[in-house]
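Record type: monomer structure entry
Structure origin: computed from sequence
Chain ID: A
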Amino acid sequence: MTTSLSSIALLDALTPQEGYTLTPLADVRLLRLNRPLSRTPVL
C-alpha cells in the first residue's frame, strides 16, 4: 500500500462521516467534506 493510500485509509477511519469529528486532543477537530470546498479560512 502506498503512503497516500495509507493516509486516505487512516483519514477515512478517523472521519467516518461528513462534518466535524471530535478527537481526544483538546480543541482538535477533523473536518471531512465529500465535495470540493472553495477557498475558506479554517482555524
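Annotation 1: Strands lie at 19-22, 29-32.
Annotation 2: The CA atoms of residues 20 and 31 lie 4 Å apart.
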